[in-house]
């Protein structure tokens, strides 16, 4: 009976992870839809700002329902503010990538995050990384080279944006590991979203765009899916082991391919498929090894 309950929780955790990645990808797809209506890079500032306001309202509602609404704790925490700045920098480069690169390729290159986290952990945190994980790291970088395809560079040098975003996310995760206080995931999500929204609000002063009611409605729906992504990510952690669900993070690549094809008429190149497979295999090796070493449960 206990075994059956455990299996059910693991399956539910996997389902939540799939919904989490679907929600994040759907939000990003709506952002790109509005960007293409204007086709100006500066419009991203206002898109992320307005979407952020809606998202904050959704997260506030969830915090109130869960009785975790503690403004004093959230706004006086230096740790949460710094994490928000790191997330803002990641968001800045990520959305440059979303705007300028094929949709699926952004997720493929962003999947470098676990590979970079292993590398940075060894360099900056003196974590012991043996030959198996170093081999996986090297394999991951080979996958990136395959996706980029230096011989052609069809998308110019825009590929650097999601890679920088992956680097910033890795630094963010390393910083989060050292939090001294115990914050709820929703409190972290709120402050992160607040800092990102404030940054893009300041940047949007540079140029103002007259969004149509349809654009505002699309941003409202995007914010709803972004908030859902946060909620499902919290539910995933609480209901199942990270070692069980983490491999399913890569499902976001599938959503990227599907949205790219149906919404933006993008067909990934053979190199993108091969590179994605190599990067995913690399990430799975790292996750498997961390599980064996007890670094994730």
Q: Can you describe what's shown?
A:
The protein is mainly α. It has one domain. The protein is built from 13 helices and no strands. Helix 5 runs parallel beside helix 8 and helix 5 runs antiparallel to helix 12.
Describe this structure in a few short sentences.
Helices cover 78% and strands 0% of the residues. It has 297 residues and is an all-alpha fold.
Provide key terms for this protein:
78% helix; disordered N terminus; 297 residues; single chain; mainly alpha
* Tally of helical runs: 13
Distance between the termini: 22 Å
Give the helices and strands as they follow along the chain: HHHHHHHHHHHHH
Strand content: under 5%
How many domains? The number is 1
Number of extended strands: 0
State the major sheet: none
* Global shape: globular
Q: How would you classify the helix and strand content by structural class?
A: mainly alpha
Average pLDDT level: 89
Pick out the low-confidence regions: 1-6
In helices, the fraction of residues equals over 70%
Radius of gyration: 19 Å
